Amino acid sequence: MRTTVLRGGDLVDGTGAPPRPMVDIVIEGDTVRSILPSAPRPAYGTVDEILDARGLLVIPGLINNHTHGTAYGPLFPSAHEGLPSERVRANLDRHLLEGTTTVLCVDGFVTAEAAARTADDHPMRVRLASCNTPACLRAASIADGAGLTEEIRAFTAHRALAAGAVALGEIGAGHTLGGGGASYLYIPAEVSRRTGKTITPRQADAIKIAVLGRHISSSSFDRDAVEEALVGAGLAEHLSVTQARALVSEIVLPAFDIALDGLTEAADYARRADVPVLVHNAAASMSQVAAIAATDVRLIAGHSNHASFDPREALRHAERLKELGATVDVSTFDTFGARRLTTGPELLYAMLRDGLIDTISTDYAGGHHDPILLAVERATEAGVVRLPEAIAMATANVADAVPGLAPRRGRVTPGAVADIVVTDPARLSQVDTVLIGGAIVVSGGRRVTAVERAEVVEAYDDR
Ligand SMILES: [Zn+2]
């Protein structure tokens, strides 16, 4: 069995325990065997490789419970046409280079066969969630459904769970519940089709909220606000208020109530199958999510910092969910970078400061998500959370919240699988090395193939 020593790094082990400076991690095969105070190289006699981590931070590989576009097959719980396979692999590369070693793909209509093909093409551990329950399938068919085939329709949640799916999710979504997916995808596309004009996600969001409000209800229609939003989007000459109201309503409303019913239905399925249900938690779905939390299902309240919440509403809601025993998840979205829909980290920070967060994921943000480690870095700098707790939110807490997702992973402790990330302590998102099951898959901040791996080991040996 191959023995590797990861030498001299400062370890934050994922359990929430304080950092352990200067340790050597002995890896045998795919397993962490022991963790010792750092010793000079000769102490280990003949080992197959020694990776020098002195001055660097060592953490468990991240486990991301909310990703889209990370497996071949329909995109999103609206069953949008799947991304080209090279784009899926590029998404997986990006997650891997950000220090993630396991992703839960919550697109929801990916088949086991498509997941197996994805796994053949990429070292990332990709696990599936299913949203193929009757109501969610109907909502997807109405909202989009372009990626559905007979085979996919027949790959029901029951079959998916039997084939290894680890959760139900994402139940409801921005694409079926009038959330981000409507704003960055469906509304801009329809506006462009009808007027030839391109609008930004934020402009589409403003029109949507003016027509239907944050909680999505036709009674929230605000004529003046629609007029203002149309002017803001440069559409005043191209769409009347009535036309805009019809356009948004026709995109959002037909699937909306069915998708809401899907939340309760999927929670029932999940309870019976004894798996977690991961739901789209946003202003539009919060009442249903709270009702599900009051039952005895294992609930992951996805992206509880969703931009559709009023900040105080989000905090109160998260508090309530936590009291009811739900896992409160937040997503990085595009909070620090693109900011196409989110406005900044204030809500995320407030939730961290109040101790309301269990897990951190990315979600998709129209393909513009920020790295989890960037959020951890900024939040620790801002003093709203300590590093060990923040790392636990992206590792051990996720493994515990979704038991089938990453067994024996999420912690760097003896006996755990050696999914390990080595990064710059001053710039956490500058990931240097990633190991999955003890094998190097990223080195020097770059994906390495099996062939290149031998050279990497040699380079380490020369240091
Ligand atoms: Zn969502």
Task: Describe this structure in a few short sentences.
The protein is α/β, with parallel strands linked by helices and 463 residues long. The protein has 3 domains: 110 residues, Urease, subunit C, domain 1, CATH 2.30.40.10; 265 residues, Alpha-Beta Barrel (TIM Barrel); 72 residues. Helices cover 39% and strands 20% of the residues.
Question: What does this molecule look like?
Answer:
This protein has helices spanning 85-97, 112-121, 134-143, 150-154, 157-162, 180-195, 201-212, 223-232, 241-273, 286-293, 311-323, 346-353, 372-381, 387-393, 396-401, 450-462; strands at 3-11, 20-28, 31-37, 49-52, 57-60, 62-67, 100-105, 125-130, 167-171, 277-280, 299-302, 327-331, 359-361, 420-424, 427-436, 439-443, 446-447. By secondary structure, the chain is of the alpha/beta class. It folds into three domains: 3-60 and 411-462, Urease, subunit C, domain 1; 62-177 and 253-401, TIM Barrel (Alpha-Beta Barrel), CATH 3.20.20; 180-251. α3 packs antiparallel against α9, α6 (180-195) crosses α7 and α7 packs across α9. It starts with a strand and ends with a helix. Bound molecules: zinc ion. The site of zinc ion has 6 residues, from loops. Residues 57-441 form the Amidohydrolase-related domain. Its cofactor is Zn(2+).
